[in-house]
Amino acid sequence: MSALLDGIRANDFVIVGRAGIDFFTDVGVRAEDAESVTVDLGGSAANIGAGICKLGGKAALVTSVSDDSVGSYCINRLGHYGVDTTHVRRVGGEFRNSLAFYESVLDGHRNVIYRNGAADFQMEVADVEVVDYSGYGALITAGTVFAAEPSRTATFRAFELAKAAGLPIIFDVDYRPYSWPSPQVAADVLSRAAEASDMIVGNDEEFGFMAGGMDRGQAKARALSQSGAEIVIYKRGENGAVTYADGQEIATGIYPVTAVKPNGAGDAFMAGLMTGLADGHDLRGAILRGSACASITVSQPGCAPAMPTPDLLDDFLTNHPGPTQP
């Protein structure tokens, strides 16, 4: 596992995936009752990058954005959070950045995603081939980047180039059905990506989907840890997580909070996990830091703006009663 952890400990990540724009209501306000909304950065890969930078790491995003005011906004907000945008390319025509409109409400939460003609799916092989992967410690991506061409082929090419440069591949399954042409295509492509990865993070539904049934998800996660991936984290929502590494199973709980929405939990978990390992915490400790980041993020409106800084995370861990028993 040393090569994987050594790469993560560089705390300098190249992230392949999308940046979007989020609109969200104030706490407790339904969409139909909103007289104003807050706007900020969105998109899973962009959120992970923002979370890593807020926690003291470095991150560069490889993607494409629309050549319009929304694309400019996304680039500006990435810069605001400290994410390197050197490899963010603008695309013209009718391609548009993804947009999410969601409520800061947990009960009956609604999240509407607009992704017709998504600009990030226009990322090309040439976009990933100009990246100097040797300048980073690890590559991170989330599953939506594989949902369409040319982004799918470009990302698999990024995997090849990163591996050639000695970088480990960290894969957040992040299955979003609305982005894919069919469940069959998704299952095949996401399984291929998982088999090429050194670390895989997903929830019970995502592993179950890849396995062909929810009842087989945990077995799928265990099998992936035995066939190639060095670390596989099987997230179970309020029941915590089970991590498979070095032939061991590590069960961890969650940090209960009063959540205001579910959005951003997985992205915050990844940011906390990566920076936790980079800061020298053992695997269990880093997973718990990721869980704490997820809890902090769902307790506030927004995704990127809700992710913690080191001081906020330390304060949360100091004052929270502690995680649940797994």
Would you write up a description of this structure?
The chain has 326 residues and is of the alpha/beta class. It has one domain (2-319): 3-Layer(aba) Sandwich (UDP-N-acetylmuramoyl-L-alanine:D-glutamate ligase). 38% of the residues lie in helices and 23% in strands. It contains 11 helices and 13 strands. The protein has a 9-stranded mixed β-sheet with strand order 5-4-1-8-9-10-11-12-13, with helices on both faces. A hairpin with a 5-residue loop joins strand 11 and strand 12 (241-245). Helix 1 (2-9) crosses helix 9, helix 7 (204-211) packs across helix 8 and helix 9 (265-278) runs antiparallel to helix 10. The chain is globular and about 50 Å long. The two termini are 25 Å apart. 52% of the residues are buried.
Q: What labels would you give this structure?
A:
about 325 residues; 13 strands; UDP-N-acetylmuramoyl-L-alanine:D-glutamate ligase; nine-stranded mixed sheet; 11 helices; about 40% helix; alpha/beta
Inertia-based shape: globular
Q: Which topology does CATH recognise?
A: UDP-N-acetylmuramoyl-L-alanine:D-glutamate ligase
Spell out the helices and strands N to C.
HEEEHEHEEEHEHEHEHHEEEHHH
**What's the architecture, going by CATH?**
3-Layer(aba) Sandwich
Helix content: 25-40%
Total E-strand runs? 13
Average pLDDT: 96
Uncertain segments are none
Output the number of helix runs. 11
What oligomeric state is this? single chain
CATH superfamily: Ribokinase
